[in-house]
Amino acid sequence: MRRITTLLITVAFAATLFAQAPPVSGSWKVVPSPNGGKEADGNVLLATAAISSTDTWAVGAEPNPNQYLTTTLAEHWDGNRWSIVPTPAISAPTVQLNSVAAVNSGNVWAAGYSDDPNCLCGKTVVEHWNGSRWKRLTTPNPGVADYLTGIAATSATDVWVVGYEWISNFVELPLLLHYNGTTWKQFNTSQFHFGQVSSVFARAADDVWAVGWTGQVPNVNALALHWNGTFWKRAAFPTESGGWIVLRSVSGVAGNDIWAVGSYQFFDINGLSLSARSYHWDGLHWKPVRVGLAFYSYLSSVTAKATDDVWAVGEGVVLPKLNELNVTYHWDGSAWSNVPNPDKGVLYGVSALSSSDVWAVGAGFVSPGTYTIRYGVP
What we know:
The protein is an all-beta fold. It is built from one helix and 28 strands.
């Protein structure tokens, strides 16, 4: 999951160029988490949702029967330890949960897909935690194959799931679905012709953001969609010449305070390269905000708790170190700063209760299996 990156400028100059703001005062620590299946390899946590200090969820996949064929995995933090909570059995060669959203302790939602590596035949998966057990919902599958990557909910009757659908073997469309507690509604995205929605954030029933990308390489553009309670509207997004922007995650605290993260991607002599990007919505425009990660880098997840308290996780070179690190970054209202973590696993999801209680989840590379770290202030 890491590689030594060829540096194109001197370390001394680069260290000045990418100087970081002073980090926050706490620290990250590894918290043991269990593995499902018969082996640790193949266990991964892809998303997390924190409700309280004694109530946090993480979802992903566990090997079944091996690391290449998986089933759903859900884990719960009760204030003392992580434990696996059974999820409904799904008959498919591989199944995973990509996203989780929590309204309260008795109303938690997870989304993902089931698939068969031998065909283009993915099916949507949505599960609901009612306070005592997980139950799978009947969900639409409008395409030849359908995959869910994100979920958000403001109540049991206001749930959004996003992803992508293949309407043929050659055309992939963003997928937007809404659940009102009884029925599902699909929204038309045929105008984008090709693309995916990676993440969705619902601040209120009439204020929802979905982000991803649209187009085909090299003519790819960032996709940012806003729901105002009546219809979806695409918001103009910054562009960069020579490459394209892929958005991976969105979160926010107010109608004029929304964050999106991802990467700027381009081809160089080494092939496809990535550079981490973050963007802020001020109520009128999306504007780029410098992250400070150098060279091969990306941000995979973001969570916002306050205007001066935003967290993002990903991977990249934090100078003056020359190797890639799995990074945790904090926005203090004026700048992003790297907050060093144990760097013993790849990080895919982050959620925060406050500036002094944050979770990040993923998969270990020092020791295979699920990986969870927690940030706290002594």
